[in-house]
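We now fix the convention by which a protein and its fold are recorded. The integers have meaning only within a learned vocabulary of local backbone shapes. The record below shows the convention in full.
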Amino acid sequence: MGNALSIFFVFLSLLRASQATIDVEFETRVNLSELSQKHEDLSRSIAAMIPKKWFIKTKIKDKYLLTYKNLKSEKNFCNGEKFLEQPSIAKCTGSLISDTRILTAGHCLDQADLQKSCDDYFWVFDYKKDFFSQTAAFPGKAETLYSKNLLTLGKEIFECQTVLSSSYSKNKLDFAVLKLKQKPNRKEIIIERDDKASVSQVSLGFPNGVPMMGNRGALYLSKKRNLAYNNMYAPIGSSGSPVFNREGSFLGMIISSTYEQVSDGECLSESTFENKVPLTLYKKSSLIHKLLN
């Protein structure tokens, strides 16, 4: 993952301290089954940015095996942390905004070599827990597992053809649009021209690289014209995640979040930044619409 993994300018602080998992009062991540049908439907248009190294092409045409490491082994999370046994391989989140275009955060890409970021990753739809219903240890690779379910190129897996646009300025202009080689048979997410006021909010993404989760929060502060804060706990992997209102209208895209991963010298635990209410910064729909048009 590299330095650019201040993904969505998630502020990462490695402190020597003994601390348990994130306080329940600050936990906003939820299973997809806890969301409305509208948001579950929208989840079909959300893709995970996953390095190609985790995929193995099979002898069956366009079929791929997906290997992975779980959160405990891949990121060295401590026993007792949430989601330890779940796969942890997604780098960022993207939204399908036209027949072949993906919207994500600019810092998810290597700004010095955009085409490499395009070539080295697949964009994967339906990266969800039920895909991993049947798994097994991968022979010869320590702590590596694989799903017995196969993925299909052009159905769940998509290749990036080129980066159409990418800009990155810390906590300001941070977005990218990629063009896929194949056309997903999925509905596009509509980017509203005008911002909608909404206190109750829902986001969809891949926090800590795990299969898709929902995130429920509320508007915290909207003091800047093109940016706003909510109180979601959104660690690495949430970069690029779309934010919706209760009705499913697009409100914006997450570009940064305050959180900590605290080290006791042996493993990592999750925490909110200085044990305060988590804040997640998102770029408003109106600005994204302007940048796209």
User: Anything to note?
Assistant: Residues 285-292 form the longest helix (8 residues). Confidence is low (pLDDT under 50) at residues 1-20. The chain has one domain: 3-292.
